[in-house]
Fold this sequence. Notes:
globular, 2 domains, 10 helices, mainly alpha
Amino acid sequence: MNNLAQRTVSGFILAAIMVCACLLGPLFPVLGAFAIGWTMHEYYSMAYGHSGDFIPERILAVFSALTVFGLLNFILRGMLDARFLVLALLPVLAMMIVPVWMKDHSRHTRIAHVYTGLVCIGLPLSILPLLTLSTGKHDGWLLLCIIAVIWLSDVGAYALGTALGQRPGAKKLAPAISPKKSWWGLAGAVIAGAAVSVGLYYLGIFKLPLVHCIAVGMLSSAFGVLGDLVESMFKRDFGFKDSGNLIPGHGGLYDRLDSLIVAVPAITAYLVLFGLL
């Protein structure tokens, strides 16, 4: 199978899994937990290599993010009181204390990677239940719309970025991280995101007021581009082209979720500020 066919098949399967995860309530916690654990695993594999596969701090960081994710699922379903969310602090506390008794003290300067994986990857994904369980019952249409906007806005980014962003003198977005990304590409993504959101609104899928659909679409697209740059920054620093090889033709799971990871906190903050969650 050639690379294009491989990418097409893998992309179709991934899209089908995403749709099922968003729309099938019982499947969402399972796939959500897997996404958190595996994307953090890919980041730590880049940061540490195989030498850090089983260090306690890394395991505790993943456990902390999964604890937040699990507790939010129970709390938003009305099965637990919100005060139990403080339990997620316990593995974070353990992350600070455990290294004191470790025999190998040479890696303590790298503990920043443990917290980076938790804060920049684990926690943004762990708050996904805020977008799917705001009514107390699972409703994944909002999240699915956000994912669709992010993926389809890539078309606008590519089109405008290629047409105008590669001309001599065109301003690059972050040339030290991604020499090809331009401000024109960002503008194309935002325009496409707004257009896709309007389309989803009139199809009856995006169930926010139109002005907020457009705002969420623009935020999703803009922060999606920034999420891609954040991962590119990590990969450049660690010397990797892809975060992994889980998805044939696409690389790792982090490569596919990088945009969503940064967009989710921004969108959640917007929706909360405007009383939409």
